[in-house]
Design brief:
The protein is an alpha+beta fold. It has one helix spanning 20-35, and strands at residues 8-9, 12-13. It has a two-stranded antiparallel ribbon.
């Protein structure tokens, strides 16, 4: 089954830099930042 929503932040990420085509540059970079342990707000946070 194909995932339509990929989340990142809050201690976990569904993607990584290798998924740049799918996630876009911003999404892939946020996922990588999360993997490095940098603080990334969860989706929907203001």
């Amino acid at each position: 089954m194909t995932a339509w929503v990929y989340s990142f932040g809050g201690g976990g990420a569904d993607g990584d830099a290798s998924m740049k085509t799918l996630l876009g540059g911003k999404g892939a970079n946020l996922a990588e930042m999360n993997a490095l342990g940098l603080p990334v707000p969860p989706k929907g946070a203001s």
